[in-house]
Amino acid sequence: PRRPGWAGPSRGGPGYGYQGRGGYGHQGPPRGYDGPPRGGYQGRDVYPRQRRPDQPIRKGRIGPRPSRECIALNRELTNPRTDVLQLFSERGHEFNGVNLATAIYQLAKRRVNGSAAVERMLERAAERINSDVSEFDARALANCAWGAVKLGSSNMRILDAVADATPRVLEDFNPQAIANTLWAFATKEVAAPELFETLSNAALPLMDRFNAQDLGNTAWACAKAEKCDSRLFQRIEAQCCRTLHKFEPQNISNVVWSFATAGIPAPNLFRAVADGIVEDGRRNSHRWRRYNAQAFANLVWAYATVKHDHPQMFDVISNAAMTCFDQFDPQNLANFAWAYATVERASPQLFGALAQASLHRLDDFIAEGLSSTAWAYAKAGIAAPALFREIAKRAQAKLGSFNHQALANVAWAFAAADVHAPELFDAIAETALTQGERFNSQDLANLAQAFSNARRSSPKLFDFIAKTCLQRGLGAFNSQDLANTAFAFGTAGHSSKELFDAIGEAAPRSIGSFTGQGLANTLWAYCVLGVDAPAFFTAAAEALPAHVDRLRGDFAASSQLYQVFLYLQIESPHQRLLPVLAEHRQIWLDAFWNDSIRPSQSQLGVSHALNVLGWEHEDELRTEDGLSLDMANSSTKTVVEFDGPTHYLQGPDGPSLDGRTHFKRRLLARLGWTCAAVPYFEWDPLLASGATEPYLRGVLARLAPQN
Q1: What is the pLDDT of residue 704?
Q2: Whole-angstrom distance, CA of residue 46 vs CA of residue 174
Q3: How far apart are CA 292 and CA 220, in angstroms?
Q4: Quick one: which H or E segment has residue 69?
Q5: CA distance 407 to 385
Q6: CA 245 to chain centre
Q7: What whole-number distance in Å separates Cα of residue 673 and Cα of residue 669?
């Protein structure tokens, strides 16, 4: 039987860096933008604000009139030649709220390293906000929050103070203050649901005044913090579409990244952005020349994540990116490869250039980057042996930092790409045993499928998968997970009656979502392992007729169904399923016989040696039931099977027969045939030493009738 036809291990894609579900859980900002305020505290606000009832009316700003000393201090603080910390040390007692906000902003803007003096200033600001918020308007609060985050302070009292004070000055918030405040809290990952709700609501009536940077910051912050108000995102989408011609590349990539991460559909925005990118690229506009590696990687990641395929955009970006892959960092490279594989736009030329760029920087790839890159090449079906060899080395060295999904994905990738990496698979198995409850249903199914497809034996891993599935129950498994898990256990010949009983109970509930191949794979696995499942067989009997027409052209699945038919006919008749299969028996049998049989040179050598010893037999004999026997004597119903490498799974403890071969031997025994096997790993050394005759006499002795 063939491998399941599922193309990839992760319905959401493995992602890397900025992934939502199904990914690695480390959402992060597009790294090219820090979200700073567009200016210090000097000058008039860009947009006018309404006066609070408790504030005096002043021309040009809101709040208590600052003293001349405070105004002078502010001018001194904004002077590039001023040592802000020295000034605070000498005259900090004179600083009011505006001065503190300006000082914090200036320190952050100048990238001053954190120090005790900086912490004292932040502590002073927090105390002033808590004690007398009237000294701070919205811009001051936003500057304090932004500055604290940029300065890398570990003391979050100032963010708590800003969150508490925001409702009291809410009417002062303009788009820039809203965007920068949300950015600060999202960047520092401070949980503040009330703040996000309050500022999201405040942003709605001001949306027509948001510019590109405000829109990008606000959307990014809400997506990063997972505080996404659908009304807000709808308004952001509309405002973006109206003002898209004013956006810089970074604003564009930030916005589409945010919508993709939030999982909020925005088809109009994505279509408008893609059309604009294509037009910019074709004209080689000034904006097009400002796109960089980060913007390209974020854009294609976002479009792949929401499954919005725009062929022209992907072509334009790939052509441009191939000229600057040397500017891509490891995360950009991994995201780029993942995106093009996900939307099935990978080309040998593009992935060849990506492989060359990635090979030079693999040492800097983190676990998820290695996993995503391997997944992308396997999903795209593009061979890259040198890249896979190097990924295997790095992955094995870093397996301790792989999470559950990365482990499953890298195993799936190496199996799907048919890359021989036994040491890596053995290390993955050992690492998986230590991750316990972290694996979800999809990870477990992927891991089992990967090991069976790679023909790698790991009884402990399969025991672990079965135990974990049983402990959690199979409620989270969909039909694809159930089919892949069952098929993997059947291929490996690893029996777990308790697991298959559980699958047999769960599968009928989702029988309508099984594909024809999924049904064939699952039924075949039950028959291979000899596990009866009356409820599942009954449900399959009802569902199978709807798939017959499609299965006619699927020789692998039809071949599996013939083996199911043999099992039911010979070992365990089922009143409902057997007649359904018997009705289309000729379809299944034709597919089963369609497999071309080419005896290996080793098998032909065994056959010749048996002829020399006088054992009469026929090569590749077909039985009445359609089974093919390597070397058989029909009169005595004896058979010698040569088991080459394809009959075995390889493992640390040596080769072990796969489920298919066990199944065939079981059927032959039921049909009255006596079978003896010649394993390749026993025959090859004897052939080299010339000691085959005594060995084969022993084989023939096993065929003699037993008293």
Answers
A1: 87
A2: 9
A3: 19
A4: helix 68-77
A5: 20
A6: 33
A7: 5
Burial class (CB in 10 A: 0-12, 13-18, 19+), 635: exposed
Judge residue 3's burial from the number of C-beta atoms within 10 Å of its C-beta, 0-12 exposed, 13-18 middle, 19 or more buried. middle
pLDDT (tens digit per residue) in 132-174:
888 898 999 999 999 999 998 887 899 999 999 999 999 999 9
Alpha carbon 614 to its chain's center? 59
CA distance 149 to 105: 10
**512 CB neighbour count, 10 Å cutoff:** 11
Instruction: Read off the pLDDT of residues 46-91 as tens digits, 9 standing for 90 and up.
Output: 333 344 444 443 333 445 566 788 888 889 999 999 999 999 989 9
**pTM for the model:** 0.84
Calculate Rg over the CA atoms of the chain.
33
Mean pLDDT of 252-257: 95
**Tokens found for residue 378:** 């396997």
Check: CB of residue 529 under 8 Å from CB of residue 489. yes
List % helix, strand, coil for the chain (3-state, nearest 5). 65, 5, 30
What token pair was written down for 106? 């200036």
How far, in Å, CA of 351 to CA of 325, rounded? 11
Which residues in 147-266 belong to E strands, given as ranges? none
pLDDT tens string 328-374: 999 999 999 999 999 999 999 999 999 999 999 999 999 999 999 99
